[in-house]
Amino acid sequence: MGEFDTTIGFTLMGVTVNTYLTGLIMSQFFTYWNSRYQDPWSLVAFLFMINATQAAAVVYMSWFYCVTNFTNPRVVAISLWPYPFTALTTAVLALTNQMFQSWRIYLFTKNKILVGFLVVTSLAACGMGVAAAIQSWIFSELAKLVALQPVVEGNLALQCGIDVIVAAILTTIFSKSKTMFAKTDMVLNRLIRTAVQSGFFTAIFALGTLFSFRFSPGTYMIALFALPIGRIYTHTMMDHLISRERLRSILSNNGNIVSVPNFNATTDGSGDGSVIMMRTSPSTSKTNRPF
């Protein structure tokens, strides 16, 4: 193994994966901005700015390590500012995604206690992530970052747990809404797959970051997982935003019977939150759609 494989090597791998994922979400931004969506642009503009800034920062970091300090082997002991900046942006993007998913869960369930738990836990995880980012910015030496282990591990464990819980809740909601109608089930299967994939990949990267920091604190293995995780959160949100029209068009073609939770239709009087039937058409109100 080479002298810099576990330091600059892992950093370059993380930058490569992060840059690739940035290219994917930039294509999602392009698709969104060339579509007919009439959403407020504040969320999408925020996601674009924070991801573009983070991608530029880590590319600069790779240049700093590999070009500017090519003949300076001691530079590997320095944790450059894009590392804590990435931790800060990841905490913000994780909170944004978790709030977005919690809002979807509330629309389906109207369960204030459940959603309140998700919101409070997400805020706690974000607070720990911001605190860890600030402290790592102060402790610029790699050897000193071990002192942040409890905060970092707590942040990553909460993020992973929230992502898994959200994916499980959404999967349960969509599974219970299935009907005998092919178009409806096609859409629900797509929503289930998206929920499972988003929770799976964010959990994998969070656990990878957690285990790297726990068992390999003297290396930059953490960069392989920590640098790209924010792009996973962004991809999850953008995939939902740009897929809405296609899913709605599937349900709107020639009308279709759709099974949905009764948050957007009249109840059957039983008060048990049972699923009821409604007919969708091209003129169905967008406000009451489940996605």
TrEMBL record:
<feature type="domain" description="DUF6534">
    <location>
        <begin position="161"/>
        <end position="245"/>
    </location>
</feature>
<feature type="transmembrane region" description="Helical">
    <location>
        <begin position="43"/>
        <end position="63"/>
    </location>
</feature>
<feature type="transmembrane region" description="Helical">
    <location>
        <begin position="156"/>
        <end position="174"/>
    </location>
</feature>
<keyword id="KW-1133">Transmembrane helix</keyword>
<feature type="transmembrane region" description="Helical">
    <location>
        <begin position="115"/>
        <end position="136"/>
    </location>
</feature>
<protein>
    <recommendedName>
        <fullName>DUF6534 domain-containing protein</fullName>
    </recommendedName>
</protein>
<dbReference type="InterPro" id="IPR045339">
    <property type="entry name" value="DUF6534"/>
</dbReference>
<dbReference type="Pfam" id="PF20152">
    <property type="entry name" value="DUF6534"/>
</dbReference>
<feature type="transmembrane region" description="Helical">
    <location>
        <begin position="75"/>
        <end position="95"/>
    </location>
</feature>
<keyword id="KW-0472">Membrane</keyword>
<feature type="transmembrane region" description="Helical">
    <location>
        <begin position="195"/>
        <end position="213"/>
    </location>
</feature>
<keyword id="KW-0812">Transmembrane</keyword>
<feature type="transmembrane region" description="Helical">
    <location>
        <begin position="6"/>
        <end position="31"/>
    </location>
</feature>
